[in-house]
Amino acid sequence: EVLDDQGVEATQQTEVLPLLRMVTLLDPSMTDSYDTIVWDLYKGQGQTETALGLLEEGLARNPSSYQLNFRRGLIAYQEKDYKTSLDYGLKSLQLTQEEFAQLDCLRLIYWSAKELGEREAQTRALADLVRMRPKERLWQKEMTKLQGQGK
Predict the structure, then answer these.
(1) Alpha carbon of 77 to those of 91, 107, 134, 139: distances in Å?
(2) Residues 4-38 as b or e (16 or more Cβ within 10 Å = b)
(3) Angle made by CA atoms 113, 129, 38, in degrees to the nearest 5
(4) From CA 105, how far away is CA 114, in angstroms rounded?
(5) 16 SS3 class
(6) Cβ distance 108 to 74 under 8 Å?
(7) What's the CA gap between 137 and 130, in Å, rounded?
(8) pLDDT tens-digit profile of 81-91?
């Protein structure tokens, strides 16, 4: 992130990834390192399979990591694997008490469920989003649409 802030392009940051990888090998509980490497491989370098492999390793070593479970769900959503996205969204929601993290999970759950036509999961996520952010117009609008579909 510091290199990004300094304007160093991703292609010039390749020396950072091996150092972060060494961190994951020396201390597998450093979920930030896994998350950083995975996102850079996925989004920055387009290496989806490598990123998912490393993410699975991180999840095997840190199954209760909110951060890694959420990242898995987010990548699944980006890859249009909405079932996996929904599953990991639900799991990551159970792993956090932090309000903004919960909102991220609920958004992931809602949009994944909407893509799958999973009305029950969609309704529950939307109800929680409206409860947590009652003045958010998007969620009010989505609720109106969802209620209109039920008629």
Answers:
(1) 14, 11, 25, 19
(2) eeeeeeeeeeeebbeebeebbeeeeebbebbbbbb
(3) 60
(4) 14
(5) helix
(6) yes
(7) 9
(8) 999 999 999 99
The model's pTM: 0.82
Transcribe 23-78 into DSSP letters: HHHH-TT-HHHHHHHHHIIIIIT--HHHHHHHHHHHHHH-TT-HHHHHHHHHHHHH
Q: Tell me how long the chain is.
A: 151
**139 or 149, which is more confident:** 139
The pLDDT of residue 30 is above 60: yes
Give the phi and the psi of residue 110 in degrees, each rounded to 5: -60, -55
The model's pLDDT over 91-123, given as tens digits with 9 standing for 90+, comes to 999 999 999 999 999 999 999 999 999 999 999
